[in-house]
Amino acid sequence: MTKNSFFIFLLISTLFTSCIPIKDLVYLQDKNNSGEQNTISAVESKPYRLQVNDVLSVSIKAIDPKLVSIFNTTDNASSTTGKSESALYFDGFTVDDHGNIRMPVLGEINVIGYTLDEVRIKIEKKLLEEYFKNEADIFVTVKLAGFRYTINGEVGSTGTKTLFQEHVNVMEAIANAGDITTVGDRKTVTIIRQTPTGVQMNNIDLTDANVMKSPYYYLQPNDYIYVKPLRQKTWGTGQTGIQSIGTIITLLSLATTVYLIIKN
Fold this sequence. Notes:
Blueprint: H1 3-18, E1 55-61, H2 65-68, H3 85-91, E2 93-94, E3 100-103, E4 107-110, H4 116-130, E5 139-144, E6 147-153, E7 159-163, H5 170-176, E8 184-195, E9 198-204, E10 224-229, H6 231-235, H7 241-263
Parallel strand pairs: 6-10
Antiparallel strand pairs: 1-2, 1-5, 3-4, 6-7, 8-9, 8-10
Helix pairs in contact: 1-7
């Protein structure tokens, strides 16, 4: 093999090994290669059960607002639309270390391990048994004070995020964080989930359309998402063919310069 052939071979090999294939960048691919449009039913997520440090927004309404004003905080008595995350945090009810929330008049109510609907029914029952009759038409709303999750790794914007919606899937969460970078591994996205029985950790492949069947496709509040880097990032040869060529030319120019200096 001549010297020129060796350099051409080295160049081609570097391009193929350093460039990131398009198949590693495209989400939700049909990896069965069926060529047909398939309908994929996502796995229905289990109702979230409250944990310590969750913050609840509780609103109690009735035909006569004056009857229930004492049960509401000043801000909860009005609409929560347009409130900042910090306002919802300070005006909400935090689940303490004993699994209780402390509400005006009603006092401490145990909510740990309950779903939001179960907490709503529990508060309604307590109100009707101790304070009101059915004719008062009590209407209770219980929501989380924002859907919080944390994302780290190769994404546009890391940190703890809050979305004001009840259901969030991993694609929405990643899009809200500025998407996965070019050197992020879409095939091995780690979801870490805290449950009453312990911590669960699972890897999902976002390049496969069948990920929508995973129980981790729909997030739960306080989930942690980690996107690890691809090997191409550590190699430093470039993410595209043009970047790789530029890197190789720079290295060859440096090697030539050093050779000429040593020779002379």
